[in-house]
Design brief:
This protein has 13 helices and 13 strands. It is 39% helix and 19% strand. The radius of gyration is 20 Å and the shape is globular. Strands 4, 5, 6, 7, 8, 9, 10, 11, 12 and 13 form a 10-stranded mixed beta sheet that branches.
Length: 362
């Protein structure tokens, strides 16, 4: 095995490929936090996490000041021990997004090394359930798009053999949201799944009205209808409608997911590897969801989540939002409506190191 001899963190800004607006925010840019770890047996792992516009420098500062110095001399293969030790160091700032993003960048780098050392891809090292996962598109469903563009994007996804599309909701009037989804349903027919996402913008009353209207349109799930800390509200909504409630992108600990699952407030779990603190806790959430007979459809980060969703038996979908094309040499492969996890040893992401270095934030 190999001990850590060096670890560094840096920030890369990536502009969004298309304008992205939801009910509460705009996706301005992706602040990509990278951690590079080298071991004394010659392996180098590159891990990462992200923000959608703010806070990236705070994550890098936490890494450089408090976390990375503690890695020197650690056994890179002892991933659970390293994660626990770093978490203990950050108890004063946990549970919280900055800490989770920092831990994720370290943890994914260590998993990259683990897979390289074993000569195996992440999807197999993390569980190896299958190599392909159904893919659905979000890029064509942003809130600012006119209905005609939503329809064109959905038809293109259907014709490409994809399994579903996501439409952002949260317009001021319920009728507007319903009309947009109805237009998409009329265009694509009954076979394509339509997911909707309110990005925590609604009250229980507003969400209940919409959910009952969405039932008539055979919506696959209702994502983040309420603020993420409103467990009881999500449970009440789940009882009031047959549309599954999807949550997870804004949850940052295993305990938060447990609270949702125990309350019957989550029909779909959307755990995000960066926001939960890495691959190590991501797998714990996925297995917890399996114990509750709940499927996992991870949020964003398709290039990484394809391998994790493939690794576990309850992986449901991969979300298509391309964001790494500027700093990779290969795109995630899609075949017959399925995202295909890479067979390359490591995380399965073909990084363009020159392009990454060119975009480093001073």
């Amino acid at each position: 095995m190999g001990k850590v001899v060096s670890a560094s963190a840096y920030l890369v800004d990536l502009e969004v490929e298309t304008p992205r607006h939801d009910a509460v925010q705009s996706f301005v840019k992706q602040e990509t936090v990278f951690v590079e770890i080298t071991t004394d047996d010659g392996h180098t792992g590159l891990g990462y996490s992200y923000t959608i516009g703010t806070g990236g420098r705070a994550v890098v500062a936490l890494l450089r000041t408090d976390l990375l110095p503690r890695l020197h001399g650690c056994e890179a293969g002892d991933i659970e021990a390293v994660w626990s030790q770093l978490y203990a160091v950050t108890r004063a700032t946990s549970i919280g997004v900055i800490t989770a993003l920092a831990l994720a960048a370290v943890d994914t780098a260590l998993w990259d090394i683990r897979c390289q050392r074993a000569g195996e891809p992440l999807w197999r090292m993390a569980g190896g359930y299958r190599q392909e996962v159904p893919v659905y598109d979000t890029e064509g469903g942003w809130l600012q798009l006119p209905t005609e563009e939503l329809v064109r994007g959905a038809v293109a996804a259907r014709d490409a053999g994809w399994t579903g599309v996501k439409v952002k909701v949260g317009k001021p009037r319920v009728a507007t949201d319903v009309a947009r989804i109805a237009a998409v349903r009329a265009a694509v027919g009954p076979e394509l799944e339509i997911m909707v996402d309110a990005n925590q913008s609604l009250t229980v009353a507003d969400a209940t009205r919409r959910a009952r209207a969405f039932e008539e349109l055979d919506v696959a799930w209702f994502e983040e209808p309420l603020p993420a800390d409103d467990v009881s509200g999500h449970a009440a909504l789940a009882r009031a409608s047959s549309v599954p409630v999807a949550v997870g992108e804004s949850l940052y600990s295993l305990g938060q997911f447990r609270a949702y699952l125990e309350a019957g407030a989550a029909g779909i779990v959307q755990v995000d590897v960066a926001r939960i603190g890495g691959i190590t806790p991501w797998l714990k959430v996925a297995h917890l969801a399996e114990a509750f007979n709940v499927k996992v459809a991870p949020h964003f980060l398709m290039e990484l989540h394809v391998s994790l969703a493939a690794a576990v038996p309850n992986g449901l979908y991969v979300e298509h939002i391309p964001q790494l094309r500027a700093i990779t040499t290969e795109e995630m492969r899609i075949a017959d409506g399925h995202a295909v996890a890479s067979d390359s040893p490591g995380l399965g992401i073909a990084w363009d190191l020159d392009a990454i270095n060119d975009r480093r934030v001073a």
